[in-house]
Amino acid sequence: MAGPEQALVDGIRAASRQMVRELGFMQATLAATDYPASAVHALIELGKHGSMSAAAIAACLGLDKSSVSRMLRKLVDAGELTETVSDHDGRIKNLSLTARGRRTLAAVEAYGRRQVEEALQHMAPEARGLVHAGLEAYARALAQARSGAAGAVISPVRICPGYRVGVIGRVTEMHGLFYARHAGFGQYFESQVATGLAEFCGRLQRPGNGLWVALQGERIVGSVAIDGEDLGPGLAHLRWFIVDGAVRGGGVGQRLLQAALAHCDAYGFAETRLWTFAGLEAARHLYEARGFVLGEERQGRQWGETVTEQLFVRPGVAG
Question: What is the pLDDT of residues 298-307, one digit of tens each?
Protein backbone atom coordinates (compact mmCIF):
# COMPACT_ATOMS: atom_id res chain seq x y z
CA MET A 1 0.00 0.00 0.00
CA ALA A 2 1.47 3.39 -0.98
CA GLY A 3 0.65 7.04 -1.48
CA PRO A 4 -2.44 8.54 0.14
CA GLU A 5 -3.71 5.15 1.36
CA GLN A 6 -0.55 4.61 3.41
CA ALA A 7 -0.82 8.12 4.82
CA LEU A 8 -4.44 7.46 5.75
CA VAL A 9 -3.57 4.22 7.56
CA ASP A 10 -0.67 5.83 9.44
CA GLY A 11 -2.81 8.82 10.38
CA ILE A 12 -5.57 6.63 11.82
CA ARG A 13 -3.02 4.58 13.75
CA ALA A 14 -1.41 7.70 15.21
CA ALA A 15 -4.81 9.12 16.24
CA SER A 16 -5.77 5.77 17.80
CA ARG A 17 -2.57 5.66 19.87
CA GLN A 18 -3.10 9.19 21.12
CA MET A 19 -6.73 8.49 22.00
CA VAL A 20 -5.73 5.37 23.98
CA ARG A 21 -3.22 7.44 25.95
CA GLU A 22 -5.56 10.37 26.54
CA LEU A 23 -8.33 8.06 27.79
CA GLY A 24 -5.94 6.51 30.31
CA PHE A 25 -5.67 2.99 28.91
CA MET A 26 -1.88 2.98 29.36
CA GLN A 27 -2.32 3.24 33.14
CA ALA A 28 -2.57 0.23 35.44
CA THR A 29 -6.08 1.27 36.45
CA LEU A 30 -8.88 3.00 34.54
CA ALA A 31 -11.62 5.59 35.07
CA ALA A 32 -10.49 6.63 38.56
CA THR A 33 -11.03 3.10 39.94
CA ASP A 34 -8.62 0.58 41.40
CA TYR A 35 -9.35 -1.82 38.55
CA PRO A 36 -7.66 -2.48 35.20
CA ALA A 37 -9.38 -1.72 31.89
CA SER A 38 -10.70 -5.27 31.46
CA ALA A 39 -12.48 -5.16 34.83
CA VAL A 40 -13.97 -1.72 34.14
CA HIS A 41 -15.28 -2.94 30.78
CA ALA A 42 -16.75 -6.04 32.44
CA LEU A 43 -18.65 -3.81 34.90
CA ILE A 44 -19.96 -1.69 32.02
CA GLU A 45 -21.17 -4.71 30.05
CA LEU A 46 -22.84 -6.24 33.09
CA GLY A 47 -24.55 -2.93 33.76
CA LYS A 48 -25.85 -2.94 30.20
CA HIS A 49 -26.95 -6.60 30.06
CA GLY A 50 -27.99 -7.23 33.66
CA SER A 51 -26.35 -10.64 33.99
CA MET A 52 -23.88 -12.63 31.88
CA SER A 53 -21.86 -15.79 32.10
CA ALA A 54 -18.08 -15.64 32.28
CA ALA A 55 -17.87 -17.10 28.77
CA ALA A 56 -20.21 -14.41 27.40
CA ILE A 57 -18.14 -11.67 29.04
CA ALA A 58 -14.93 -13.13 27.59
CA ALA A 59 -16.45 -13.18 24.11
CA CYS A 60 -17.74 -9.62 24.48
CA LEU A 61 -14.35 -8.30 25.63
CA GLY A 62 -12.36 -10.35 23.12
CA LEU A 63 -10.23 -11.94 25.86
CA ASP A 64 -9.37 -15.54 26.71
CA LYS A 65 -11.58 -17.30 29.24
CA SER A 66 -8.84 -18.04 31.77
CA SER A 67 -7.76 -14.41 32.22
CA VAL A 68 -11.39 -13.24 32.34
CA SER A 69 -12.22 -15.87 34.96
CA ARG A 70 -9.40 -14.63 37.21
CA MET A 71 -10.47 -11.01 36.76
CA LEU A 72 -14.12 -11.82 37.51
CA ARG A 73 -13.15 -13.80 40.63
CA LYS A 74 -11.36 -10.70 41.95
CA LEU A 75 -14.47 -8.59 41.33
CA VAL A 76 -16.62 -11.16 43.16
CA ASP A 77 -14.17 -11.21 46.09
CA ALA A 78 -14.22 -7.37 46.15
CA GLY A 79 -17.99 -7.38 46.48
CA GLU A 80 -18.61 -5.84 43.07
CA LEU A 81 -20.28 -8.92 41.54
CA THR A 82 -22.44 -11.80 42.70
CA GLU A 83 -22.85 -15.26 41.16
CA THR A 84 -26.13 -17.12 40.64
CA VAL A 85 -26.87 -20.44 38.99
CA SER A 86 -28.51 -20.16 35.58
CA ASP A 87 -32.22 -21.03 35.46
CA HIS A 88 -31.64 -22.89 32.18
CA ASP A 89 -28.45 -24.79 32.96
CA GLY A 90 -27.26 -25.62 36.47
CA ARG A 91 -23.68 -25.92 35.24
CA ILE A 92 -23.55 -22.24 34.26
CA LYS A 93 -23.10 -19.42 36.74
CA ASN A 94 -24.29 -15.95 35.81
CA LEU A 95 -22.71 -12.81 37.18
CA SER A 96 -24.45 -9.54 38.01
CA LEU A 97 -23.65 -6.31 39.80
CA THR A 98 -24.09 -5.97 43.54
CA ALA A 99 -25.18 -2.69 45.13
CA ARG A 100 -21.49 -1.85 45.48
CA GLY A 101 -20.92 -2.77 41.86
CA ARG A 102 -23.71 -0.45 40.75
CA ARG A 103 -22.14 2.41 42.72
CA THR A 104 -18.76 1.70 41.13
CA LEU A 105 -20.34 1.61 37.69
CA ALA A 106 -22.13 4.91 38.30
CA ALA A 107 -18.78 6.51 39.17
CA VAL A 108 -17.18 5.01 36.06
CA GLU A 109 -19.98 6.31 33.83
CA ALA A 110 -19.79 9.79 35.37
CA TYR A 111 -16.02 9.85 34.85
CA GLY A 112 -16.33 8.74 31.23
CA ARG A 113 -19.08 11.22 30.40
CA ARG A 114 -17.03 14.03 31.93
CA GLN A 115 -14.05 13.09 29.73
CA VAL A 116 -16.18 13.21 26.58
CA GLU A 117 -18.00 16.41 27.54
CA GLU A 118 -14.74 18.21 28.25
CA ALA A 119 -13.27 17.06 24.93
CA LEU A 120 -16.36 18.17 23.00
CA GLN A 121 -15.96 21.67 24.40
CA HIS A 122 -12.76 21.91 22.35
CA MET A 123 -14.48 20.93 19.09
CA ALA A 124 -16.55 22.93 16.63
CA PRO A 125 -20.25 21.98 16.98
CA GLU A 126 -20.45 20.83 13.37
CA ALA A 127 -17.60 18.34 13.94
CA ARG A 128 -19.19 16.50 16.87
CA GLY A 129 -21.69 14.46 14.90
CA LEU A 130 -18.99 13.57 12.39
CA VAL A 131 -16.76 12.21 15.18
CA HIS A 132 -19.64 10.16 16.57
CA ALA A 133 -20.49 8.64 13.19
CA GLY A 134 -16.84 8.03 12.33
CA LEU A 135 -16.02 6.30 15.61
CA GLU A 136 -19.11 4.09 15.33
CA ALA A 137 -18.22 3.10 11.77
CA TYR A 138 -14.56 2.44 12.63
CA ALA A 139 -15.40 0.37 15.74
CA ARG A 140 -17.90 -1.66 13.72
CA ALA A 141 -15.34 -2.26 10.97
CA LEU A 142 -12.69 -3.36 13.48
CA ALA A 143 -15.12 -5.85 15.00
CA GLN A 144 -16.01 -7.22 11.57
CA ALA A 145 -12.32 -7.56 10.66
CA ARG A 146 -11.62 -9.44 13.91
CA SER A 147 -14.57 -11.81 13.49
CA GLY A 148 -14.29 -12.20 9.73
CA ALA A 149 -17.94 -11.15 9.30
CA ALA A 150 -18.92 -9.41 6.12
CA GLY A 151 -21.12 -6.87 7.87
CA ALA A 152 -23.45 -4.34 6.34
CA VAL A 153 -21.95 -1.64 4.17
CA ILE A 154 -22.98 1.90 5.04
CA SER A 155 -25.15 3.28 2.25
CA PRO A 156 -23.37 5.82 0.04
CA VAL A 157 -24.80 9.32 -0.15
CA ARG A 158 -26.47 10.21 -3.43
CA ILE A 159 -27.67 13.61 -4.66
CA CYS A 160 -31.24 13.66 -5.97
CA PRO A 161 -33.21 16.55 -7.51
CA GLY A 162 -36.76 17.58 -6.72
CA TYR A 163 -39.31 17.42 -3.95
CA ARG A 164 -39.50 14.37 -1.69
CA VAL A 165 -42.09 13.58 0.96
CA GLY A 166 -40.84 14.86 4.31
CA VAL A 167 -38.29 17.28 2.88
CA ILE A 168 -39.81 20.41 4.46
CA GLY A 169 -39.79 18.94 7.96
CA ARG A 170 -36.38 17.29 7.65
CA VAL A 171 -34.60 20.34 6.19
CA THR A 172 -36.19 22.52 8.86
CA GLU A 173 -35.02 20.09 11.55
CA MET A 174 -31.42 20.11 10.30
CA HIS A 175 -31.37 23.91 10.18
CA GLY A 176 -32.98 24.26 13.61
CA LEU A 177 -30.58 21.87 15.35
CA PHE A 178 -27.41 23.21 13.71
CA TYR A 179 -28.12 26.91 14.17
CA ALA A 180 -29.42 26.50 17.70
CA ARG A 181 -26.05 25.01 18.66
CA HIS A 182 -23.93 27.33 16.55
CA ALA A 183 -25.70 30.68 16.88
CA GLY A 184 -28.43 30.31 19.49
CA PHE A 185 -31.24 30.69 16.95
CA GLY A 186 -34.62 29.49 18.16
CA GLN A 187 -38.31 29.29 17.28
CA TYR A 188 -38.38 32.40 15.07
CA PHE A 189 -35.58 31.08 12.85
CA GLU A 190 -37.04 27.59 12.61
CA SER A 191 -40.46 29.00 11.70
CA GLN A 192 -38.87 31.19 9.02
CA VAL A 193 -37.15 28.16 7.48
CA ALA A 194 -40.31 26.05 7.48
CA THR A 195 -42.53 28.83 6.11
CA GLY A 196 -40.09 29.87 3.40
CA LEU A 197 -39.35 26.33 2.27
CA ALA A 198 -43.03 25.38 2.20
CA GLU A 199 -43.82 28.43 0.03
CA PHE A 200 -40.90 27.65 -2.28
CA CYS A 201 -41.91 23.99 -2.74
CA GLY A 202 -45.29 25.24 -3.97
CA ARG A 203 -43.57 26.84 -6.98
CA LEU A 204 -40.74 24.38 -7.43
CA GLN A 205 -41.92 23.36 -10.90
CA ARG A 206 -41.51 26.86 -12.33
CA PRO A 207 -38.51 27.41 -14.65
CA GLY A 208 -35.28 28.31 -12.91
CA ASN A 209 -36.22 26.89 -9.51
CA GLY A 210 -34.50 23.78 -8.20
CA LEU A 211 -34.13 21.66 -5.07
CA TRP A 212 -31.57 18.93 -4.38
CA VAL A 213 -31.32 16.60 -1.42
CA ALA A 214 -28.54 14.31 -0.24
CA LEU A 215 -29.89 10.85 0.59
CA GLN A 216 -28.23 8.11 2.63
CA GLY A 217 -30.51 5.19 2.02
CA GLU A 218 -33.84 6.99 2.16
CA ARG A 219 -32.82 9.45 4.89
CA ILE A 220 -32.30 13.09 3.91
CA VAL A 221 -28.86 14.19 5.14
CA GLY A 222 -28.43 17.43 3.20
CA SER A 223 -30.16 19.96 0.98
CA VAL A 224 -29.72 23.02 -1.22
CA ALA A 225 -32.15 25.06 -3.33
CA ILE A 226 -31.99 27.64 -6.10
CA ASP A 227 -34.82 30.15 -6.09
CA GLY A 228 -34.87 31.70 -9.55
CA GLU A 229 -37.69 34.13 -8.85
CA ASP A 230 -37.53 35.92 -5.51
CA LEU A 231 -34.58 38.24 -6.27
CA GLY A 232 -35.80 39.37 -9.67
CA PRO A 233 -34.94 38.63 -13.34
CA GLY A 234 -31.51 37.15 -14.01
CA LEU A 235 -30.71 36.56 -10.33
CA ALA A 236 -30.50 33.16 -8.62
CA HIS A 237 -30.89 32.85 -4.85
CA LEU A 238 -29.04 29.93 -3.20
CA ARG A 239 -31.05 28.87 -0.15
CA TRP A 240 -31.43 26.15 2.50
CA PHE A 241 -27.91 24.77 2.13
CA ILE A 242 -27.33 22.34 5.02
CA VAL A 243 -25.51 19.04 5.62
CA ASP A 244 -26.26 16.71 8.55
CA GLY A 245 -23.43 16.35 11.06
CA ALA A 246 -23.28 12.58 10.53
CA VAL A 247 -21.96 13.04 6.97
CA ARG A 248 -20.38 16.49 7.20
CA GLY A 249 -16.77 16.54 6.06
CA GLY A 250 -17.26 13.78 3.49
CA GLY A 251 -17.76 15.97 0.42
CA VAL A 252 -21.57 15.98 0.51
CA GLY A 253 -21.72 19.77 0.69
CA GLN A 254 -19.44 20.09 -2.32
CA ARG A 255 -21.64 17.77 -4.36
CA LEU A 256 -24.81 19.65 -3.41
CA LEU A 257 -23.26 22.99 -4.38
CA GLN A 258 -21.99 21.53 -7.64
CA ALA A 259 -25.50 20.40 -8.59
CA ALA A 260 -27.05 23.75 -7.67
CA LEU A 261 -24.46 25.85 -9.50
CA ALA A 262 -24.60 23.66 -12.60
CA HIS A 263 -28.32 24.43 -12.64
CA CYS A 264 -27.59 28.18 -12.39
CA ASP A 265 -25.14 28.00 -15.27
CA ALA A 266 -27.53 25.98 -17.39
CA TYR A 267 -30.25 28.62 -16.92
CA GLY A 268 -27.84 31.48 -17.64
CA PHE A 269 -28.39 33.49 -14.46
CA ALA A 270 -26.33 36.68 -14.41
CA GLU A 271 -25.55 36.20 -10.71
CA THR A 272 -26.09 33.71 -7.93
CA ARG A 273 -26.45 35.25 -4.49
CA LEU A 274 -26.65 33.87 -0.97
CA TRP A 275 -27.00 35.37 2.48
CA THR A 276 -25.15 33.92 5.45
CA PHE A 277 -23.48 35.35 8.54
CA ALA A 278 -19.97 35.70 9.91
CA GLY A 279 -18.44 32.75 11.72
CA LEU A 280 -19.44 29.88 9.40
CA GLU A 281 -15.92 29.44 8.09
CA ALA A 282 -16.29 25.94 6.64
CA ALA A 283 -19.28 27.05 4.54
CA ARG A 284 -17.52 30.25 3.50
CA HIS A 285 -14.57 28.21 2.24
CA LEU A 286 -16.93 26.13 0.09
CA TYR A 287 -18.55 29.26 -1.35
CA GLU A 288 -15.29 31.02 -2.15
CA ALA A 289 -13.82 27.89 -3.72
CA ARG A 290 -16.72 27.99 -6.20
CA GLY A 291 -16.39 31.60 -7.25
CA PHE A 292 -18.45 33.44 -4.65
CA VAL A 293 -17.05 36.72 -3.35
CA LEU A 294 -18.15 38.76 -0.36
CA GLY A 295 -20.32 41.57 -1.70
CA GLU A 296 -21.83 43.12 1.43
CA GLU A 297 -21.56 42.88 5.20
CA ARG A 298 -23.94 44.42 7.72
CA GLN A 299 -25.55 43.99 11.12
CA GLY A 300 -29.02 42.50 10.79
CA ARG A 301 -31.78 40.43 12.37
CA GLN A 302 -33.34 38.58 9.45
CA TRP A 303 -32.89 35.28 11.35
CA GLY A 304 -34.27 36.59 14.64
CA GLU A 305 -30.93 37.36 16.34
CA THR A 306 -28.49 40.21 15.68
CA VAL A 307 -25.58 38.85 13.63
CA THR A 308 -23.10 40.10 11.05
CA GLU A 309 -24.96 39.23 7.85
CA GLN A 310 -22.92 38.56 4.73
CA LEU A 311 -23.97 38.60 1.08
CA PHE A 312 -21.89 36.42 -1.27
CA VAL A 313 -22.16 36.82 -5.03
CA ARG A 314 -21.06 34.54 -7.87
CA PRO A 315 -21.11 35.93 -11.43
CA GLY A 316 -22.75 33.79 -14.09
CA VAL A 317 -20.68 31.96 -16.69
CA ALA A 318 -21.23 34.83 -19.12
CA GLY A 319 -20.89 37.47 -16.43
Answer: 998 887 888 8
